Amino acid sequence: DVQLLESGGGLAQPGGSLRLSCAASGFTLSNYGMSWVRQAPGKGLEWVSNIDGGGVGTYYADSVKGRFTISRDTSKNTVYLEMNSLRVEDTAVYYCAKRALDTTGWFDYWGQGTLVTVSS
Amino acid sequence: EIVLTQSPATLSLSPGERATLSCRASQSVSIYLVWYQQKPGQAPRLLIYDASNRATGIPARFSGSGSGTDFTLTISSLEPEDFAVYYCQQRYTWPLTFGGGTKVEIK
Fold it and tell me: Where are the alpha helices (DSSP H) in B1-107?
């Protein structure tokens, strides 16, 4: 069975950093694209970043470009989101989601999310 | 960026009624429109991909239609477990975008 388990969320100060992890099981990361999607409290879904199955192509929402970096470690079957220069508006539950195809597919599996709170 | 507008924001219906949810794109996304369901405290769940294809395990009462800029998610007869928030998402181009959601609530 496919499972995605996020970790690394918590409280950070504005301007601070956090690194989120998404441990995947039941499939091989190198065959599928992966994204991070966030949801601010009481709000809708916002796509944040994507890494393709080859691990080379990365994409970012304008709201996080230059501050967040997506990466992966195929030996650990884990995807990461390095978040720097955090802002109050980055407060959200962060979900990792598996693409059904390589880079372009729909999100067929989601993790349960990890909460990031940015506050002084 | 492609903006997805969902309507209505809230739909108040009774179990057994038909629900019709709309998603309109600011430019064509061809058929590359996806629907998700989200219940409180849970992650989103895939319902429909590429406008009209039901995901594995999704009941036949859920159906999707449309192409280009106008899409519809229909729930033919609401079950108690269908009361939730529904989001559309386009995978046609970067950045990926979601609609603002439609909440289907019990009347």
Answer: none
Task: Place B86 in a pLDDT band, splitting at 50, 70 and 90.
Answer: very high
**Which residue from A27, A48, A44 is spatially nearest to A94, judged by alpha carbons?**
A48
pLDDT at A14: 97
Beta-carbon separation of B89 and A106 below 8 A = yes
pLDDT tens column, A5-14: 999 999 999 9
pLDDT-above-70 percentage for chain A: 100
Interatomic CA distance for residues B5 and A69, integer angstroms: 29
In the predicted model, is pLDDT for residue A21 greater than 90?
yes
Q: At A77, which amino acid appears?
A: N
**Cα gap B39→B85, rounded to integer Å:** 6
The C-alpha atoms of residue B15 and residue B19 are separated, in whole angstroms, by 10
Contact between chains at A107 and B43 (C-beta distance less than 8 A): no
C-alpha–C-alpha distance, residues A116 and A91, integer Å:
5
**Taking the CA of residue A46 as centre, how many other CA atoms within 13 Å lie in the half-sphere pointing to its CB?**
18
Hey, is A28 helix, strand or coil?
A: coil
**Residues from chain A contacting residue B49 (CB–CB below 8 Å):** 100, 105-106, 108
Integer Cα distance of B15 and A81 in angstroms:
41
